[in-house]
Amino acid sequence: MTHVLRRGRGSLAFSFLVQGVAFALLVTRIPAIQDRYGVSDALLPAFLAAVPILAGVGSVTTERLVKRVRPSRLLRWSQPVVLLSLLGVGAGERMVELGVALAAFGLAVGVLDASMNMLGVSLQRSYGRSIMLSFHAAYSLGGIVGASLAWVGAHWHLALWVSYLPVVLVLLPAVLVGSRWYVDDRDAGPVAEEKDAEGQAVVFKWLLPLCLVMTVAYIGDSTVSNWSAKYLQDVLGSSEQMATVPYNVYMVTTLLGRAIGDLGVRRFGAVAVVRGGALVAAGGFAVVAAAPGAWVGMLGFTLLGLGLCVLVPQTFAAAGRLFPGASDAAVARLNVFNYVGFLIGSPLVGALGDLWSYRGAMLVPMVLVLVTLVYARSFAPQPDRYGGGHERPRTADVGRGSNGL
Known about the structure:
The protein is mainly alpha-helical. It is 76% helix and 1% strand. Helix 4 (71-91) runs antiparallel to helix 7, helix 9 (204-235) runs parallel beside helix 14 (327-355) and helix 10 (245-268) packs parallel to helix 12. Residues 190-198 and 384-405 have low confidence and may be disordered. Pfam families: MFS_1.
């Protein structure tokens, strides 16, 4: 069983990495996509908003599908669709082809994100210790790889399909082979039997604090991804070349934070790690807002990567602990708020920047991140809640316990 779990963990981590590559290749080449299809600046926001909206639909659909289909099977077939849709974005010529490719990408990403995190939560339960951050570290690494590949394509002025095709040709067969070793709850022995026996219902009011934290985390993340370059160049007076650095720094520190984050959870507990992450992230936004120059601004974005990186993985893990008998449904519902935060963050900062100032706009996600402190106790092990109103002590305390977790 240990061998099975290790192979399952490795194959799932590879899927997270591939998804990071695919998503980075899409979002970092948006200007090239806009030029290829002649998408106007007025129409571009509609195309960009359609992807997270459809991803939310895909995530909600996944909640229903997992009642009949294993999450591993959904992941096995949604990841190839994401890769082929990415290739379709690069290979099309007409606006309608772009719309179809982005729609397929969005729906498949929703299924993919939900099913990956379902498997991550169930594997963490089987391991009996915090490993969720390691999966998201793989995603961050994939994002760095994808952004680097996108830079190569842009530097050499390669057509989009030329940039995307080799990546898809390499990664598509690799994920199909790796998918053979995914591990579902029902493959994990006694843990699976315990989960199936729970029959727990997901009560949204108990999940709501985690949904708010997820939304806030992605508001912060989308602020960095969409506004860091503009902020450094227009507000802090950096060069155009230097303005590309903050997002890369953010991704690297996100990777580093997630690579060591599981150790922090095991040592200090999830509540302390989430509180620390929120405080560091808020400090990062404060430094960015008050920065007198570009180098101090980059220090702020560095802090943001270290702080925000722990929130999303721990939110998924907390949902699995809160509803151990219905973790798949809880993860699918929680995942929707990933896209809610993404949709809110960029327009919110842009509107505040135009109406007020971009320095002032950075204070808003800072305040929102601090709200996480109010809900930090939601990340602690607590009595299980059941549809019938009964409660009983939780048997697993991932991140803190007498068995060295």
